[in-house]
């Protein structure tokens, strides 16, 4: 079977692959989300009591209707019959009104609970660190937000309404059975323990298989999301058939699990149906003998049969609801795994305020290890200080740790040893929101959101005016090309900015950073994938952006950083050289070798061109 890197299912959320206990404590946790909607629940329960209670009245009236019709053969007095029919119609009408009200109120409560649950899960996801998202597929996480929460919604709305209704019907039906005929009731209820035992036994297996279905669907969704987001790569390698095969294998796995669940549910339904209607057949046989002996009237037997049928249908409905709750246990388990996930970037209870940020950045014996790439540290023993407003270029071969170094500054990861200070304050003592609010990032792979150009620039400072947006775009050399669009700043850029060229996307991202106005700026190979013309425009915008800010620049072309005030040369996670371009060229070593090798390549490219 074809498998590309990362195609395996996401790692378990809990350490060691453990899962939270799958019992009704998970559903009890859901009740916390229902607390704001207790008035809706209370009114819904009241309506349920009236609706279900009225449904219990009709079998007795129906029995009287039978007796009024068949026990008075030859009588011309239709008054009792007419009154009974009118009473029946009134009962049906009131039951329908209360039933509709109950359905609406509980469904509204369920929808509200699920909306709050989705918001809570998404909000919690936004607090987790990049390390978490590096080890879990986006498709799996979105599946938990959609499919799993949708499964829970069925329980907390429709199933919850049915649970209240059927419980009232069951209790009331059993009581009325005994009032109608105690001997027939004992005969009827003898089958109830068998039904309950069957529901519990098979229900446990349904819960287990339901979790397998949800896991398989999430894995398939994750594969599909990767293939769709990387469709250009897929098509460029003519790998469509491989992606179809991979996604098809995931869907086949979920189909087989769903089939096993359907078989279990069908088995339960068949057993319940036989026990329920078999019991009714026995009751009808025994009750018929009682009518023949004059112990009960035909109307009472009909009433009893209706009550018995109600009880039987209610028990069957409750087993179905039980199945839904079993499915919800699997889904809620996956949801609460996310809510229970702890960030590896904890905040202190009393964070220190930076106030007016100057932008001094100090690395004091800093080391860092990702933890999942072996024991060797990615960064080791970094000791240097960057003055406020200084422009620093980070240079080194691939894998030297340049991107990792700049990722520590906004605290995407925590150092594993040493201290990283901003204006003399350890970043772990600063609130994450305040820290990142003072750091701007322009990455190599620019991510724009699928809104308009204006909305993407405003992402840097949502409260800015349109005039400020345009000023930022001008400073980023973006205003001119934006103005050529028919919709101007209201032009929709498409998912990930696909409707814009690479240079245009990068300049919009720079405008976003300019509008944010950070004191510390991180540029991670921001011009590496651009053509010469776009690079010149972007480089000009970057130089304006860096003025007066502490800037860390990772550049693939050393010629673009010759004028940097300071250059740090990294190799194998260590700073091996530190100085200006001229100083490093005179000193020789790694920087000079890298520069001369790249200079020769650029010259050769010019000659070829």
Shape: elongated
List unreliable stretches of 5+ residues.
5-12, 14-22
Mean pLDDT: 78
Reading off the top of the CATH hierarchy, the class of the largest domain is best stated as Mainly Alpha
Q: What fraction, in percent, of the residue positions are helical?
A: 55-70%
CATH topology-level name of the largest domain: ABC transporter transmembrane region fold
The count of domains is 3
CATH superfamily of the largest domain: ABC transporter type 1, transmembrane domain
Helix vs. strand class = alpha/beta
Q: Strand order within the widest sheet? A: 6-7-8-3-9-10
Number of DSSP strand runs: 10
Give the distance, in angstroms, between the N- and C-terminal Cα atoms: 44 Å
Main sheet makeup: 6 strands, mixed
N-to-C SSE string, H for helix and E for strand = HHHHHHHHHHEEEHEEHEHHHHEHEEEHH
Identify the CATH architecture of the largest domain. Answer: Up-down Bundle
Number of helices: 19
Calculate Rg over CA atoms. 35 Å
Beta strand %: 5-15%
